[in-house]
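Subject: sequence -> C-alpha cells, single chain

Hey, anyone have a minute? Need the predicted structure for the following. Not urgent.
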Amino acid sequence: MSANTNNVIETKGLSKTYPGTAALVDVNYTVQRGKVNVLIGENGAGKSTLMKLLAGAETPSAGEIWIDEKIAHITDVRSAEHHGVGIIFQELNLFPEMTVAENIYAGNEITSGGVIRSKSENHHAKVLLERLQIPIDPRTRLGDLYVGQQQLVEIAKSLSKHIKVLIMDEPTSALSKTEVEILFKIIRQLKEQGVTVIYISHRLEEIMAIGDCITVLRNGRLVAEDDIANVDIPWIIEAMVGSSKKRFAFAQHALGDEVLKVTDLALKRSNGIYALDHVSFSVRAGEVVGIYGLMGAGRTELLEALLGAQPLAIGSIELAGQRIERRNIPQRIEAGIALVPEDRQKQGMVQLMTILENMTLSSLGKFTRRFAFGALGRAKQVDAANDVIKRLAIKASSVDAPVTSLSGGNMQKVVIGKALLTSPRVLLMDEPTRGIDVGAKEDVYKTISLLAQSGIAVVYATSELDEAMAVSNRVFVMASGKLTAVMERAEFDSERIVRASTPATAVV
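Reply:
Had a minute. Here:
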C-alpha cells in the first residue's frame, strides 16, 4: 500500500461482518494528520464499527489498518493505545461509585511499590480538569455529577494518556452550549499540539464549526468525502440519507381534552435549592409539548417526578381528571404514564437481554397466558415487537438479537418501543434524539407526530432549540427549576426562548 504522509491513518478494504449483518464493507478511509476529521452517517451506517476497529474494541473481518505508513496489528484497546489511538465512546464508560480522579486513571493507575498514589492522581486529575475548564473537585463521586459533566470527565480520562489520534464519538450529546464551547477550545488546542481528532456528531452546525474535512458513510460503505470548506449542510444530508428521503413536516391536528394537569410540583435538592420550583401546567390529549432548557434547568427532574422516580417531589398530578396519589413507577406506568429516559444504556434497557426481552420488559402482563400460571406467550411477544420494529424502522436482524448488537439510534428506538407497548396516555421523553443521526431523528419526529395524532400526549425535554420548535404544539421553557415561558406554536421565537432559558434573564 502506498501511504500518504499527510494521512496518519489509512484503511484498505476494511470490512466487518456480524451474524446476518455486514456492518462495514470494503472501506478505504483516510485520517488527515493534525486536523479534525469529521465522520458522519445515519445510525447503522457503520461509523461506530469503523471507530471500534481503529480503537481495538473490535477486530476486522477483512482489510488492513495502516498508521504512520506502517501496517498496524490492532487486536485490542491496549494495542491501539500503543499505536497512539484513543477513543471516547458515545456511551459513558465510567464508574459512578468511584471518584472523578479514580475514573480518570482507572486501568492506568499511578502507583508506587504496587500501591496506588491517590494524592498524585488527585493532583494530575486537577490539572487535567483545569485544562478543560471544568470546576470539579477530582475527589467528587462521579455519580453525583450531571451526565454532561461525566462526559467531560470521560474526555479528561482519554487526554490522560499519550495519544496522537483522539476519536470522539458524539462527545457533545449531553453537553450544554457553554461546555461545547469549552470542548471546541480544547480541540483547537489539541490540533496546535499535533493531535489528530476524529469527530463523530449528528449536530450538523457543530460539524461545520469545528471540522476540517468530512467523510460520509451509508449502509456500511464510504460514499463521500471532502473538505468542510467545500460542502454545506444540504450536501451532508443528501450524502447521508440520499436525495429521495422525505423530510419531517409538522402536521396540525385537532387536540383532545386535558389529559395531564400539574399543580405546584416542587422538589428540593440536598443543598436546599429547588430542582423544581412549584411548576404548574396542563397538557391536552394529542398535544406535543417540548420542554427546552439548559443543563440543570430541571427538565429531567420534572419528567422523573411525573413518572414517580422522585418520591420526595410534592404537588398535585392529575391524569384525565383523576388525581394520582400513588408514587411508585409501576403504578404510574399502569395509570398511563411512560418515560423514555435520557440515558438509554443505564436506565432504558438491560444490555444482557435481547431486543424482544427489552422491548416487552415493561408490559409483560400483556403477554402472559391466563390459564398457564402466568407463562409468557412468546408468539404474542414476537408479534408486538415486530410491529414496533416496523413502525419505528428499527434495523435489526432478529428480535432475538442482543440489544447491544444495534447502533445507538436503533437502541434508542427499542427504548421508545418499550414505552409504547405500555399503552401510555402520556409519553414522557427525555432527550429522545440525543446521539442519533439526522435520519433516525426524522423517524423519531414522525413517531412523535403519529402518536400525537392517535391521541397520546407527548411531553419531551430537549436541549436542541430547533428540535423544540420543529415538533411541538407548544414549548415550555425552564430555568433554575422554574417554568419561565410558555409559547404557542404561532408565538415561537428563538431569541425569546433562549432569553427565557437563561436564569439571570428568565421571565415568565
